[in-house]
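REQUEST FORM: STRUCTURE PREDICTION
Request ID: SP-0412
Submitted by: Lab K.M.
Chain count: 1
Length (residues): 180
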Amino acid sequence: MRDTNAVRWFVMRDLKRRHSLRRAYQELMERGFEVFTPMRETVTVKKGVKVRKEEPIIADLLFVRSAKGPLDKVVANISTLQYRYRLGHSVNDPTVVRDDDMERFINAVRNSKNPRYYLPEEIRSEMYGKEIRVVGGPFDGYTGRLLSLRGSKTKRLLVELPGFITAAVEVCPDYIQLVS
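STATUS: Completed
RESULT:
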């Protein structure tokens, strides 16, 4: 069992319905937790008026940075909030994401005007393009593979949280350096 005082990025599930007024990520943020969930902007019509709102890309996926002890107390009080566990692993050991991986992903998404998100099963091997290093711009120092889509003129770098979600972020071609 891991140290309950260590601060980590825990992978959580929010079992509330998609259109609930208060989602778990909102409740956790109100309680002072650092929370990240990939969001998208949607437009709906309410009473004849178009309303823009942000909603999670994947309704039940959120990441919470905390020590396990304080988070356990919140999970006990919110019946629709659960830890995620990897198949075949201990029930007492919730899934965590390394700080470096999480910070890289969050930085990429926040510095991209229009990130595209993919679930692990949506990424096919032929979508992985050339291996690159980004030199300059908001993604300076990032390495990875370009998204290869037929007919696309936009260069997008794939930034992954393995097993959960991948973001394809637009990179200026001038900053791309091929890795041999």
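NOTES: The chain is about 15% helix and 40% strand.
Reviewed by: T.R.
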